[in-house]
Design brief:
Structural class: mainly beta
Number of helices: 5
Distance between the termini: 49 Å
Number of strands: 25
Strand content: 35-45%
Length: 357
């Protein structure tokens, strides 16, 4: 016969909150059902911010997009036989043309003209925004369709999230438009990039990487173009001087919370430059991978780089370029993007400038 034990919770709310902030998002979403008081604590915006600030350095996930679906993977389980992928459902009709254009504080920005979707995969919170006012027929001077640069970031001073589009009209003028989640509308400003030479270099459609209060783009020039979310102005981050000019191609990545440059040379090696300390030129560290087209995915806490070799599969290299692990049958044909788990919500707003599912 089983004896039933009556449990009385005598712990103060402050201690309960301290314990809960140390738990993963997945567990907290389940614990909302424990009681009304736990539901109120976990649903509170202040608790969500405290939890994110405590766990942001250890809650990375990989978002995989392909074949009309999205999946989430724990990067620490990549070399397990079963990486425990989670199929995600979002309030949006995916197609082959949907692109991931940015992420920030647990939110992902998906883009398929004429809509942007801001979505938290951990909680399902989402907002759908139309940018059909940027269709060629709606602009007097016309627009260069391949000139879009997208980004999504957080303005800490105003406690606001901005969806950003940088574009160029047929007369060569550049504009930046941002949608404020807090005031719920688009704003447009004509801009000047830091150097005229960037106008041509930054003309191709490009996603933005949010880090340290700024959105960063690959401009294929000799610096990284960045936009300060608080000051609302552009600045540059120089590429590492030892990089030189003689390489086949170079692209910007965000790996494990670090800005990285992936460089391919004719020597059939891939160089991955990691900025270990944001904004400090001397902190650029190079990893030389003995693969001609190694595509990096994740930078681990053990200073190892996980990515996709040219012949397929999955591989892990240390900072000396030595192979540590490999998995030949890892064959996900997906587009990948790193994001953080969070309980955060978007600022409340009203109006008809967006559609919420």
């Amino acid at each position: 016969m089983t004896k039933r034990i009556n449990y009385k919770n005598d712990l103060p709310n402050e201690l309960i909150m301290e314990i809960l902030t140390r738990l993963p998002v997945k567990s907290l979403m389940r614990f909302k059902c424990v009681s009304k008081s736990w539901f109120a604590i976990i649903s509170n915006d202040s608790f969500a911010k405290s939890h994110f600030e405590r766990s942001a350095s250890s809650s990375h996930r990989i978002l995989c997009h392909g074949d009309g679906e999205l999946r989430s993977i724990d990067p620490d389980l990549l070399f397990h036989k079963d990486p425990h992928t989670i199929k995600l459902s979002i309030p949006y009709s995916l197609s082959a043309y949907v692109r991931i254009q940015g992420s920030c504080r647990g939110f992902i920005m998906l883009q398929e003209f004429p809509d942007l979707v801001i979505w938290n995969p951990s909680t399902g919170v989402n907002k759908r925004i139309s940018y059909d006012h940027l269709s060629p027929g709606n602009l007097e001077s016309g627009i260069i369709l391949d000139s879009f640069m997208f980004g999504f970031g957080y303005d800490a001073r105003r406690d606001d999230y901005l969806a950003i589009i940088v574009w160029c009209d047929v007369n060569g003028r550049r504009f930046l438009e941002y949608f404020s989640m807090r005031i719920n509308k688009w704003e447009r400003v004509e801009i000047a990039l830091p150097r005229p030479s960037m106008d041509a270099a930054a003309s191709l459609s490009s996603p933005g990487y949010y880090l340290n209060g700024a959105i960063h783009w690959d401009t294929s020039s000799d610096s990284i173009l960045a936009f300060d979310m608080i000051e609302r102005e552009f600045f540059e981050i120089p590429l590492p001087e030892p990089l030189g000019k003689e390489f086949m191609s170079c692209c910007l990545e965000l790996l494990g919370g670090f800005l990285c440059l992936c460089v391919w040379r004719e020597s059939k090696k891939t160089e991955i430059w990691v900025m270990k300390e944001y904004g400090v030129a001397s902190s650029w560290t190079v990893y030389r991978i003995p693969e001609s087209n190694f595509d990096p995915l994740y930078f681990t806490k053990s200073d190892e780089i996980i990515g996709f070799p040219s012949l397929g599969g999955l591989a892990k290299y240390d900072e000396k370029g030595e192979l540590r692990e490999c998995m030949e049958n890892w064959n996900y044909e997906y587009h990948f993007w790193m994001y953080l788990e969070s309980l955060l919500s978007l600022p409340s707003s009203s109006g008809i400038a967006w559609k919420e599912e």
